[in-house]
Amino acid sequence: MIPTQHNLDSFKYMCQNTGSAENSDKEPINMIRRLGGLAILHSYIMKILVLLLCSAVAVTCGKVRQGRKFPDEFVFGAATASYQIEGAWNEDGKGENIWDYLVHNNPDAIADRSTGDVACDSYHKYKRDVEMMRELGIDSYRFSISWSRILPTGFPNQINEAGIQYYNNLINELLKYNIDPIITLYHWDLPQPLQDLGGWLNPLIVDWFEDYVHVVYENFSDRVKSFITINEPAQVCYEGYGVATKAPLMNVSGIGEYVCARHIALAHAKAYHLYNDVYKPQYGGVCGYTFAVGSTAPLTDSEEDKYAVELMVQQQWAIYSDPVFSKDGGFPKDLLELVAEKSAAQGFPKSRLIDFTEEEKAYIRGTSDFFGVNHYSGSLTSFSLYTPQAVPSSMDDIGVGQMVPDDWLQSASAWFQKMPDSMYITLKLIKNRYGDIPIYITENGWSSYGGIDDDNRVDYYRSALEGVLDALDEGINVKGYYAWSLMDNFEWLAGYTECFGLYQVDYKDPERTRTPRKSAFVYKHIIKTRMVDPDYVPETTVMTIDEGH
Description:
alpha/beta, 3-stranded mixed beta sheet
């Protein structure tokens, strides 16, 4: 069956409950019909009544209801990550991390053979970065700590005070201008000495991570009130230790990602308990966990394809989030059964995916104050789309395939196409799975090849934020939105060939000049008005700081 917009609309309808936007389109008419005699009124009067009824029941009339506003307490922010922007890779006592090692020892792995040695030079230009945040008017800035910058050996036997001071300077600059810092404790840049000992495949990583985050909490939790333990565990485990598309480029498919999944859940839980037990009582604050969640939709309306969606969800992100957010804890049951069956058939004496003990489940379950979601796009899913994969591998374990229709707009990233309604579908998937939990969109953005007039990015942001408004209209507990990214940066294996920034960075300029794109002005307008205006066109190319920022 050829996928159509009807299939996506059907899936969106399936995701919704009776109070949804699409159902509410028809509700005013149904109400009028129930009023009996009013049905014979002149069509002009009918239209007025429809508008009045829409206002009375506070429902969405049409796909985009003009005038919807984000709540006053809704947080708007921007996000970055340490290796992608800081540079200063070997300055002031910083140690080597797995990305330093990769780009210097395997340069052909990077699309343009570039490195993050200087990147955006934010280590030296953090004040300009904060100035850009003030220009945008954001409420909060999400950044990550470089483990190797504060612990050069990976262990707390050597604490680099220059690294601590850099983050103190950044935090103080943010607070000076009433921008709330949110720290990501781990965004993929493991110290190389720890990788030499096995990295996330070594069970001792759980304790190593706790030792590291203790140093972070001890130095910054007096001023920082929001922490994220780990960014996108799927990318750490599946891409880093399964299919080798992220550092450390270990291809241990079907085994490595599952071993990593156990260790990373336990490491997260240890970091959460440390904060919750020691630092939260002193300073208050929250500690959460961020996952990459795609909008996985069925290729057809068949029950088989709907089940394929569930298996893809389990393989892609629920394997990491279920242990924390599900009622029973532990890995997803269907995935456990499938991997056990495949492992036995392949001659393994035990399952390649070992569930947690009951004690471990209890220790991990509930260890997050919010669900952080990084969302970009999605795909259509079906058993019929499956093609043979490596054996063993997690994709072979579930036997499900994916596809993207040709009419979805392609970004500069091969993996990233603009899926209709993807933000709404994603938020609804999370709500349906875990109930009424606080959700922060910790990354969302569009990749381009560069240039200032980034209309596709503008359209993407508007569509995504309309999806957030749809979710808010349904009562989904979305608390905030962080644009990815504040500025262009080193985009992992793509190097500098893909641009995600609201601000363009000139890498040919030693000063790494930052220039606002059209999307920066549009995002600023959305933040200022707390509305998505599809007709807004920036009247200037000069970015200024508004009063109060």
